[in-house]
């Protein structure tokens, strides 16, 4: 669906030429970035704060489909996915390293697009690209990003701190990224059948953007700081709510009760899910890739939180023996199971 | 050449099961590793020291050939390559994150072998695996590692500090890894032609190990500390001496003179290179993958260094306008050009 007009071969520049070309527009923004790209290692200084490190790998054909993913969006999303992990620790993200592998089917212009999306995300979230690696690949596009940030020790929120009675909160709304993906996949099939038919995504911008251009929730981390609320546990939603709440309850040695009617689902997500014959609740629980924050707070913090329209309280933490339960709108009780997207069972090649 | 007998499918475990399985034997060794695997991000504390971060990506078919690379060696080498970058900053390596992508042709046992090599390297070099990512791949094996370390600010050695008159030093010997690779490639061709012929690597252990199982030179960093010598510049040799010395002189805005007769080349490397019709000097200059340290020292430090048999002084730094020159054994002068292994021109797929 996307065409490239100009085309410069990467081999013309070589690895060092390419790195120089891509990194020449980087301006270091963070005081903690002492030395960025250009030496054997970057040098950082967190001045007594704790350093936070997270890493994610994105592979073509597994995590993204270039048939409907513009490279600039992909670059943006690749950074977001990684920053999200730092925010999920209640920390500030300050640096990333970016490693790229790509075959010669990618022109310099294509890689520039990808990198432009990364730079845009870094610019917006005040993050420095401080290093990386580029190599050719016999396969498809390979993206590996490590994100780095910091926090005061007393601010860090782990997955294992949830206590009985804590309220379970989630930012934004759920399921949109998954339903957006269904839409893009359908239009891809239509396009493959007849390349003259233009994709019909009209009025679906919101859920398409949820899939292609998620935004990591730094604003929630800022809000929590402003409200002086320190969550007792936190995780970002990459694999789906069900999978993530189970990480929290398993590591906290607790159980949970979640109410279906409380799950935040955007009307367009619900409507589009139904048009695909999908249950919106299942999309919210197991769709994944929403990159919202899931966290637990003490009941004492409820009054502070209840007026924020962008945070939903969806249930509470129970004792471990009570298990992990979903209470449906009809009042039925189901065990919550992780049916999140599993990169190992979804592909058999 | 390598056969797997037992075979467990990864899909049986799923991503989280696999991560649990691989990481259950990790015991955190460094005081700076506050929280390792198991949350959104790892938490580190460098207590006022500077943090060092480096990253490398290794792709099947580009950086390694599984036809002659045992997975355990590959895991070991993948860690070494990354630690080497931290040592090249004159720092101590303390943590790594490990991201792996692999297709379903890899069994659990195969991934365990790879991971065992990584754990062995980390054990030996006192490094903690603190995080990572695992995913399926449609392609081959993908390995992305980020290494983390620390140093006092006053100890960090960059590439840009070489001064006119400084002596150029290199640890160990050069070219062995490249010649070892030629040997392995030849035996692979023999094997492909007739699988009944056993590989003939007898007596070639040293150069085969240089290729398959390099050792990062932490001992040189320790030695420099003991001798109270702080190099004026340093880099590790991954792409070949020629390419690396040009990084130093370009970033230091200087030139250099290197003497062919001073290049440290192991007799087995020289002899085997000649049997392939290769010039040992070219192998030393452009072969790459030796993971030795190349550094410059002040002339005043010469007396301290001259007795170390594992460090060769191969030339000196000149003013920039004098260029980068190799003085051959016959007394001829050649410009040094980076003809190191280039991942973008070596593959056209």
From TrEMBL, chains A, B:
The protein's enzyme class: transferase
GO molecular function: ATP binding; magnesium ion binding; thiamine-phosphate kinase activity
UniProt-listed InterPro entries: PurM-like_C_sf (IPR036676), PurM-like_N (IPR016188), PurM-like_N_sf (IPR036921), ThiL-like (IPR006283)
Binding site for ATP: 115, 132-133, 159, 238
Residues reported in the UniProt entry to bind Mg(2+) 3: 40, 85, 236
NCBIfam families reported in the protein's UniProt record: thiL
Additional comment: Reaction mechanism of ThiL seems to utilize a direct, inline transfer of the gamma-phosphate of ATP to TMP rather than a phosphorylated enzyme intermediate.
UniProt protein name: Thiamine-monophosphate kinase
Gene coding for it: thiL
């Amino acid at each position: 669906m996307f065409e490239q007009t100009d085309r410069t071969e990467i081999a013309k520049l070589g690895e060092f030429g390419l790195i120089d070309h891509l990194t020449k527009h980087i301006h270091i923004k963070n005081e903690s970035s002492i030395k960025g790209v250009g030496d054997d290692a970057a040098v950082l200084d967190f001045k007594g704060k704790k350093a936070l490190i997270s890493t994610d790998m994105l592979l073509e054909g597994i995590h993204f489909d270039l048939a409907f993913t513009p490279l600039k969006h992909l670059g943006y999303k690749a950074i977001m996915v990684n920053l999200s992990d730092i925010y999920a620790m209640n920390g500030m993200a300050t640096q990333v390293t970016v490693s790229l592998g790509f075959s010669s089917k990618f022109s310099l212009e294509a890689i520039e697009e990808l990198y432009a999306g990364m730079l845009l995300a870094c610019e917006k979230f005040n993050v420095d690209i401080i290093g990386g690696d580029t190599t050719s690949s016999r396969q498809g596009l390979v993206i590996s990003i490590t994100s780095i940030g910091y926090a005061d020790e007393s601010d860090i929120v782990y997955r294992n701190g949830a206590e009985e009675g804590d309220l379970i909160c989630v930012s934004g709304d759920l399921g949109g990224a998954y339903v957006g993906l269904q839409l893009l996949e359908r239009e891809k099939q239509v396009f493959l059948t007849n390349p003259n038919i233009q994709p019909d995504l009209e009025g679906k911008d919101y859920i398409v953007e949820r899939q292609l251009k998620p935004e990591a929730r730094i604003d929630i981390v800022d809000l929590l700081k402003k409200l002086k609320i320190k969550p007792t546990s936190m995780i970002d939603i990459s694999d789906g709510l069900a999978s993530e709440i189970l990480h929290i309850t398993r590591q906290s040695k607790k159980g949970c009760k979640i109410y279906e009617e409380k799950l935040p689902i955007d009307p367009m997500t619900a409507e589009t899910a139904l048009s695909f014959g999908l249950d919106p609740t299942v999309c919210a629980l197991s769709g994944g890739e929403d990159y919202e924050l899931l966290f637990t707070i003490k009941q004492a913090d409820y009054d502070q939180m209840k007026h924020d329209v962008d945070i939903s309280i969806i249930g509470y933490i129970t004792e471990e023996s009570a298990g992990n339960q979903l209470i449906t709108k009809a009042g039925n009780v189901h065990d919550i199971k992780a049916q999140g997207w599993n990169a190992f069972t979804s592909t058999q090649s």
